[in-house]
Amino acid sequence: MAINNMRVQFALASALGLTAFALPASAQTTGTTIAANAAVTESCVVTSTALQFGGADVTDGAAHAGTGGLDVMCTSGTAWTATADVGTGANATMALRGMTSTAGGGLPLNYVLYNDNTATSPWGDGTGGTSPITGTGTGVVVPIVLAGSIPLGQTGIPAGTYADLVQVTVNY
């Protein structure tokens, strides 16, 4: 009877899913790491807005003001310097640039390009009484208002359209 009793217990244990021979489940794992790295380089982008004087009556005995602008964007912490060359106008100097008639010939229409909107410091490359514009990048666009002035006393300039191209260089 002891054998029959064991058979009943074994049958009952098997029916309930309980066996003396069940092995525990075993999971294996392994792992690794992925390195991520980058080198952020110093970079600057510069764009400009034309210096606009509009209609200038050179016979009115007054200087005529104009405004333009630069937008400079450099990576955060990047020191930069913006310089302006003499331009393409005839007889131009750093302190007194010249716009040439688009019709050709004639006298240049002289003007001063300033590195701020207060019209106090002529903008250039640091020579001839000019100063560059300096800053440190923030990662966002920094707008810079430029001012210009057509000095009085240019009454001999014929009517027409005048233009100049000034090369802007940003060193960083």
TrEMBL record:
<dbReference type="InterPro" id="IPR007893">
    <property type="entry name" value="Spore_coat_U/FanG"/>
</dbReference>
<protein>
    <submittedName>
        <fullName>Spore coat protein U-like protein</fullName>
    </submittedName>
</protein>
<dbReference type="Pfam" id="PF05229">
    <property type="entry name" value="SCPU"/>
</dbReference>
<dbReference type="InterPro" id="IPR053167">
    <property type="entry name" value="Spore_coat_component"/>
</dbReference>
<feature type="signal peptide">
    <location>
        <begin position="1"/>
        <end position="27"/>
    </location>
</feature>
<keyword id="KW-0167">Capsid protein</keyword>
<keyword id="KW-0732">Signal</keyword>
<feature type="domain" description="Spore coat protein U/FanG">
    <location>
        <begin position="33"/>
        <end position="169"/>
    </location>
</feature>
<keyword id="KW-0946">Virion</keyword>
